[in-house]
Known about the structure:
The protein is an alpha/beta fold. The protein is 40% helix and 18% strand.
Amino acid sequence: MTGWRHQVPVHSPLSAAALLAGLRAAATRNGGPPAAEQRVTALLKDRYSPRAVLLTESGTAALTAALLGALRDRPGRAVAMPAYVCYDLATAADGADVPVLLYDVDPTTLAPDMAHLKAVLHHGAAAIVVVHLYGCPVDLGEVNRLAAEAGAIVIEDAAQAAGATVNDRSAGTQGSLVVLSFGRGKGLTGGSGGALLAHDAAGEGVLERARELVEKTFGRIVAAPGAGNAAAS
């Protein structure tokens, strides 16, 4: 592991204070779902400084929402995804009903193989999902440049990388859109729940389209009421 990136320990310790906060949240429902939603949103804004936040029932739901919003007005366009990745990404693509183009990852860094990524962009990928696999953070500088040239939007999947940094920049702050998960075993764990963050104007537009589509189709999908205190601990 070189000095330009830092990977947090691959476990999610829960202190006695965190467990007590979780029990208190379960008993009081964290002041009710609206109060829990506001608290989780405030925590995410403080940590990641996004322009907009959409809370979801899971990280997979957040990615599905991102794909729906990004590709709604581009029928037939594909999303580029790493060929080696968690199967939940395929679940999200299937849920959004979008075609997938696979790109290779570098076996030494788990970052995208840039030559292959260029090829899938050439074949019409309108969105790129980049994953910090196993919490190993990826520098998205070159990915963002290639995406801008191709008119594609970058979705940074930081579900496994809470607390990791790249060149002193937090994982989850590099893409136009960022997917987070608060499921079991994650660095910020609430037992369940997820979030979609937007960091620029393009991402914010996609997130708001996704919010409209998700709420129209499923109703308001927010994180579990206990997630606020668990994330805060």
